[in-house]
Model the fold of this input.
Amino acid sequence: MTRDPETTDDPPAADPADAADQRPSTDKPGVDLGAPRWTTDYLPKMTGDADPVRLNMVTKRIRAASASDLSPRRSALKGLADASRLLIDRLVATDAPDDVIAAATVDVSAAAERFSGYHQGTLYGFSEAANAGRREDPLFDHSPLIGIGNPLAPPMTIREVDGVIEATACFGQAYEGPPGCVHGGYVAAAFDEVLGATQSLSGAPGMTGTLTVRYEKPTPLQVELRFEGRLMGVERRKIFVEGACYSGDTLTATAKGTFISMQPGQFLDILAEREARQEDQR
Amino acid sequence: MTRDPETTDDPPAADPADAADQRPSTDKPGVDLGAPRWTTDYLPKMTGDADPVRLNMVTKRIRAASASDLSPRRSALKGLADASRLLIDRLVATDAPDDVIAAATVDVSAAAERFSGYHQGTLYGFSEAANAGRREDPLFDHSPLIGIGNPLAPPMTIREVDGVIEATACFGQAYEGPPGCVHGGYVAAAFDEVLGATQSLSGAPGMTGTLTVRYEKPTPLQVELRFEGRLMGVERRKIFVEGACYSGDTLTATAKGTFISMQPGQFLDILAEREARQEDQR
Done:
């Protein structure tokens, strides 16, 4: 995989990186212009160059998400999501008669009603509740792609191996686009998640700027797909990553992403710090 | 919006268009090389140039999907999917106690069990069943993005207005990525659906070649988002389309897509013909 500036070096219109980079640098010897809000410590780095402490913090989420030992609470939430996945898998395009549809609707409505009046965690306020000991399920359990507790997620699994992000996903019947194949939109969604994890290997993750997916072959349903993500380059606050999706040995799609590293104190950074603290307290 | 060949004019590696275009053309005067499998009638055309009969066939799906009058069967399937959507919306990151989770899991498992032993439609074999009078729910009801009968779909609505594709979607809590925002992967997925509908306006739709999404601003949850898709150009079998996503007046993301028109007789064409026939028989 090579980096192609024509397709990836293309920042969003409102690129805060430009403003940030025009600030005076404190690296210049003999010049002290006061404490800058942005220092080179927080710029993305290539593999092996990032500050180990910071890298450890921003990649903790990936390691935690791939852990297999679940607390009873997380197992219970996963159990409910798994039951919902089975339901969705079976109800889509079913030929069951009308009375079966009606009875199932009553069951599912009753289940939904049970949650009426309870609160939900959102990313804001979620970690506070965890830190106060009121909840132990981490944020990523609820992701619409990797969340074991979110029925929308297949869920994908994701981990880092020797500086490469490896992910797997098996999309069932409900994700069908072309006959027997994963809907192209969900292939793109999976890449967004994989490349989002990949850019964190720079030590200074941020938000997606652009995502380009190239569909090489149909991506089959009901098969364990394998995704790879690699950090390809950094340039000031831009992070360039690439990914690939395989079904067996067949390359079905590739992707390129440009991410814009966020300033310390912006919400992704706050969340990473809080999640790391939450992990440490277990 | 302008077409940028550097980012969109980039066919998949195995591009069948090249092989097709090397076949002798019957347009050459005085030369008859027999019946070609590929004629200019099936090449994509710009708005206003496509054969009306063919355009009517390949866009029937869009008109049918935006119809508001549902048969009792389709309403029942939508009702079950809506109950499932409510369940998913409420269970994600809930703080309900363990006994509520357990009771809901029993409800949902019972609902899933009701479908055991029944068959599901897939794109293969689906239209045959419809044509034989065994089912009346059209394919698009089960799409993971626009399907009213698929709990994975928000669902999006989609329609054509004066040669422009207009779509809406409201993503709930379960689709959260950044705090309060739609996961970037689902923004990309929505664009794939919108641009897929847009390319059919060429009269000769095909498969996604590349999809590029550019994230301009955060895309909010719980808001009716508005998508637009426009046919920007055709070049042999390639179709160039562009899209935009708005929250109110704010442009949150843009997208470009390149699609490769498929040969008549390939599965998308067969499906379009069958769906059109199915519609006519109602």
